[in-house]
TrEMBL record:
Species classification: Bacteria, Katanobacteria
Record-linked Pfam families: HAD_2 (PF13419)
Stated name of the protein: HAD family hydrolase
GO cellular component, one term: cytosol
Domain of life: Bacteria
Native species: candidate division WWE3 bacterium CG_4_10_14_0_2_um_filter_41_14
Molecular function terms from GO: phosphoglycolate phosphatase activity
One GO BP: DNA repair
Amino acid sequence: MQRAILFDWDGTLAHTLPIWMSWYKAFSLFLSLELTDHQIAVQLFGHNDLVQKFIITPNQLRQAEDYADSKVDLSTEFAQVTLHPGAQKTIKKLHDQGYSLAITTSSDIDLFIKPVLERQNLTSYFDALVDRHQVKNNKPAPDIFLKALDILNVEPKNSIIVGDGDKDIVAAKTAGIKNVLFYPPEHHIIYSEQYIKTLSADRIITDLSELPVVIEKLFHA
């Protein structure tokens, strides 16, 4: 029986939170949206419905994106992005233990993720790379996760999702997949402990090095 671990990328494996926060702050500034860091994370990160959500025109959306791009060069920033402490060691350990590994993300795989995996010598450790462009519905719909499991030929009951936000946990629960929420100290300024509790994740970790033990316990729960 093959088992799989599906990783979110931004904020989970990759230390991209400061990059996206800077970009979305510039985006919000252009549109005169007065949002807290928490509101930016919850209302903007990974959403494709911003025109409807903030009642703006497609042209305003493009102008806001162009303005944010002028302030934060995502290509340059992501080319230099680092992984969270313990990520590389944990990935290799889970791979060596026989798990199928996948990255399931809203970010562009080819543009932002493959270059980092190659630089970190981690490409061969992942059996599937799935982003929002490969499915009909982005998170919090479970499409990305189900697509990855289809590629891996693993059933939802034999998999675990590791993510850092509400959309990961909601999608996991919708798909009937066990889940682990990554909640390191730096995320406290974005998600309050009270908010995290409302997500009712199966497990919460603060360091990726905890994953192998937590995953083993979840599969035998």
